[in-house]
Please model this.
Amino acid sequence: MPPFRWPLVEEKMPRLLSVRAVAISVLLSGVATSAFAFDWKAHEGETVSFLSNNNPWSQAVLSYKDEFTELTGITLKVDTYQEQQMRQRLMTVLNSGSDEVDVFMTLASREGRQFAAAGWYADLSDYTQSAVAPEYDFAGISPALVKAATFDDKLTSVPLNLEGPLLYYRTDIFEKCGIAKPVSLDDVRAAAEKVKACESGVTPFASRGLKPAIAYTFSNVLHNVGGTYIVDGKSALCSPEGKKAISYYGDLMREYGPPGAANYSFYQISALYRSGRAAMAFESSNELRTIMEGGERLKDTDVIPLPAGEAGMVPTAIGWGLAISNHSAKKDAAWYFVQWASSPEIQKRLALQGVAAPRPSVAADEEYKAWISEAPVRASWQEALDVLASDGSSEVGYPIVANPESRDYIGQAVQDVLLGQKPVDEACAAADTALDGLIARK
Amino acid sequence: MTHGSTNSQGRQLAALSAPAIVFTVAMIAFPVVYTVWLGFHSFSATGEGSFSGLANYSKLAADGEFWNGLYVTFALYILSMVLQLVAGIYLAMLLFHSKRLSGFLRSLLISPFMMPPVVAGMMWLVILDPSLGAANYILESIGLPPSEWLASPVWVIPTIALIDTWQWAPYVALIVLGGLQSLPPSVYEAAQIDGASSFRIFRRITLPLLLPTIVTAAVLRSVDLLRFFDIIYITTQGGPGNASNTLNIYGFRVGFEFFNIGYSSALMITLSAIVLAAVLVLNRLRNAVAW
Model:
């Protein structure tokens, strides 16, 4: 299956026009009255429980949670965990049919198919049309992200942010070593080689090497060289493009990555780059705030999408979403929190803290533009996000129900090459055998 | 008191304590029975289950990850156990014989096992980071080459064994110290009168007399070591590759990350059987060395 591409502006127009047409007809019908009669206090006194992943979005939005309670009279009970622990708790709760969790954060590109097939998501389609405040503007949320969160015509979550891996690189080191801004994958490798010779105390290139985390960054390389995960219903890691991507990523990390690259995830990468000990870091756009903490990297960093391969630039673009449990006994009140957290006002406020909004309108906001203009790195970050929004692919791992498990096999194949334990042919063949089994599993 | 009233009191006692007994037994038995039941079922990625008999157990035999997990579990078990017993006995002897150690220093020496394993794991993860950690900084500052520690497929098991030894050798030391304090002084007095050296006294008297205590410590540590989880989960998550993927970590990931609850349950039942067998063997050993 080819990677899902974000529609270009021309492709978006008919959809946007149809959405507007529906909106206008709704306004003209009697339903419009209910929209204008929307009452934020309709569920006053109720308590909604929210299972949250401890990431930049949740940290920022929860700092405003008192405002939500003031506006709605709804008490928000928050349980925050690290990503993996949140998922483990969530799956236990959902599988047992418990109504303990009303709202949860979800990554449609990872568990979307699995949770949708299990019937764990409430369908939010009707809520977005009939139970919204006049200022909500659901149509203003990126249609491509909405589509990525829609399974079997059911909207499973409302997009909260836009993110994807970006290449952060040190302009001062590049200048000192006589390296131009990379425009191709080969340039990135050549730059790493030059940095290794020119600045021996600095890690030339850092990216994710921890097995379950590799798929997030590796998928971008695979798509840039023209590969995809499944061809004719079979796993395609051993296709020429698949092997090329595995070799490129594994060799780059082994030869130019940090010592112990096989245990690297976002935490180590951001810490290494922020401390000035890496010349390039291929890490999530979400990490901008963390990387810029302390201000040391504000003036010597440029941010770009991963440069092109044979198939051009196909960046990975995904987003967290806010979903309501199908087992929730308070779906209506839970929707109020979802709506508030994904409203234009809140998403603009979060954007000013470095959480990229899924609403294109935020980029045109004057206050946001002023924030962007404060530092050149923010401008290049926004430009890179624009590329993600226009050309991004949401294929991270295999587009199957067992997507989380597929990421493990991808990670294993890349690690085998990264650690020099297997040649690429052997590594991809072992992964393809296991992945074919996963694809066949219902 | 008549015979009839005694019977009546007995029945009352049984009736009153029955709910507590039933509840306690149910609380212990239910998770085990439920896990066994799950092990006989197969579940789809969406959680739908169907009875599959012994399919999950026959799958174990053909699963390379299972055999790797078994190898890693036992490699870690044996290495950690040897290190912890040696270090624990040494520390116990030190605490027993050194009268000059202050109470504070004694407390400090035995404090690591009071630290939550998650905290210990995070602490060592930072210390052993190959690029930013203190461990390599110290090695390099004394002219030694840096190590990849937890990120090296070769060194990850010894490194985790060392972390666990740092944490649990003091616990072994406390048990051994208790044993040392209960040894009969008359045997030592006789040996000293006969002119035996300190090393000979240790090898010929202390160690044999301590064996039951040492085996008890080994039994207690075996249960933890065979189901080793927390520090590995925090530091490596079973990696790099599968180099530290113990059976417990593997079973957890299969169950909670890949949602294959049936197979995960079969793995856990198998692991429980291994732990039980190890404890039974060590208990027989303890009986054999008892004095």
Q: What stands out?
A: The radius of gyration of chain B is 24 Å. Chain B touches chain A through 31 residues (CB under 8 Å). The mean pLDDT of chain B is 89. The longest strand of chain B covers residues 41-43.
